[in-house]
Write a structure and sequence with these properties.
The chain has helices at residues 3-36, 39-70, 74-109, 117-139, 142-172, 177-209, 217-227. α3 runs antiparallel to α6. The chain has a single domain (3-227), classed as Methane Monooxygenase Hydroxylase, Chain G, domain 1, CATH 1.20.58.220. The radius of gyration is 19 Å and the shape is elongated. It is built from seven helices and no strands. It is an all-alpha fold and 228 residues long.
């Protein structure tokens, strides 16, 4: 690898991690704002999202510059391609954090309603997936990345349980319908965050192995068999 290209790759690696840290902070603040009914904390997410948006554009420009100037091949090219995709998924996670914060602001101004325990479980699992996907990227750990893809099924199941519980609450007490619909949305946004973390994990597998496993369930089932 040419020295200049090596420097650029290290810089991009760090930039992705920096954006990842801001994204994790944004999601954490959105969820804390929801849990503590703190609209001010939820509003801070908007400032973080603006930082994420600016960084996303800068990283994309840097990637295009590296492609034009250095014309990387093989694993270096896969790295740049993965960074561009991961960069986009991180930006989308920031958007989801904003969406959660908006629902948190509404719920914080409304009378409290019971929040399903599984919603907390979803939040914990989704945050763990985000952090683990970024760690797998840093470490080039394709096996860890494959395990993250499997964890997405757990979040999907939690989402179904949250929907069932909130739906029962709304049926039994129609006065909760509007607030319950906001809980539906929070659950959906958490599920999407987990989906983006899964996308990052899939990109890590591509970066390390050169294999595209997106939309290929057999790739996940193989990993399940090998880890059981």
């Amino acid at each position: 690898m040419a020295k200049h290209l090596e420097v650029e790759i290290k810089r991009l690696n760090k930039r992705i991690l920096d954006i990842g840290d801001i994204v994790v902070e944004a999601i954490h603040k959105a969820l804390t704002g929801l849990q503590d009914r703190d609209p001010n904390l939820a509003r801070e997410v908007l400032d973080l999202d603006r930082r994420i948006d600016r960084a996303e554009v800068e990283v994309e420009e840097e990637c295009l510059k590296v492609l034009a100037l250095h014309q990387p091949v093989a694993e270096d090219l896969r790295f740049i391609a993965a960074v561009m995709k991961i960069n986009n998924d991180l930006e989308r996670m920031g958007d989801e954090a904003v969406n959660i914060s908006e629902h948190a602001i509404f719920l914080g101004k409304s009378d409290p309603i019971p929040v399903p325990t599984r919603l907390h479980d979803m939040a914990v699992a989704s945050m763990r997936m985000v952090k683990e996907s970024l760690e797998s990227f840093v470490n080039g750990d394709n096996q860890s990345a494959r395990r993250i893809c499997i964890e997405d099924d757990i979040v999907d199941e939690y989402n179904r349980e949250v929907i069932d519980e909130v739906w029962k609450m709304m049926k039994s007490n129609p006065a909760t319908i509007e607030r319950g619909s906001h809980l539906f949305s929070v659950s959906r946004h958490l599920e999407r965050i987990a989906d983006h973390a899964t996308n990052i994990a899939e990109d890590v597998v591509y970066m390390v192995e050169g294999k595209i496993i997106r939309h290929r369930a057999e790739s996940y089932s193989h990993q399940k068999d090998s880890t059981s």
